[in-house]
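Tutorial, part two.
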Amino acid sequence: MLVKSQVKYIQNLGHKKFRDADGVFVAEGPKIVNELLESDILQLVQCFATESWLTAQERAVKGKEKLFFQIDEKELERISFNGSPNQVLAIFTKPVFDQNIKTKGLILLLDSIQDPGNLGTIIRTADWFGLKRVICSPETADVFNQKVVQSAMGSIIRVEVIYADLTEYIRLNPGIPVFASSLDGEDLHEKIRVTDALLLMGNESKGISPVLQSLAAKRIRIPGKGGAESLNVAVATGILLSYLEPVS
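Running the prediction step on this input gives:
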């Protein structure tokens, strides 16, 4: 049974300052939680779940019983951040990644992506294409926002998400080509083979800042045939990643 202090603590984790203070984040639903429980780079802090989920996960629970709390559906609704709570909510420690600023392979740069759903989808898409790192400007949504975690699924443990000054990051990696997504860029009609490279994506409404655009080696654009003014940034990221072919 949940106590008031547990409910308040979990609700507080809906705010970045509380997540940062304790170095934790919240994940919900069997698919995500089960995958995160198997990760070697996370530690489970607490898990609140229905009897049916706990019974099905007997092996994961064994030896860690003190971290698991059985609750009913109504109690789960009290602590869930989702419209439709699903069996389990867990609190994990945040993964710790190497902050080395050197570029290796193809890396995404995100300039002020503010919609959590877009950020989560971009991270999941980066994982699909085998990218290991995403660098976000400080103005980008928090990767441990609940909506980002849900959209990214388990990709947050496979893709390093680091926050940094993008201008400084580019300048600290001289000689690495920067491909900037731009509506006035060059239409892509065939794949571009790259070794070490940066793909720069901009804010949902304002695009890439002028300073960052000036640092790009090449502006690229997805050719279109219809009347839409632009593509959703997460969709555009996936298409552009399909055009940039990493060469090992």
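The mean pLDDT is 93. In part three we will examine how such features are distributed along the chain.
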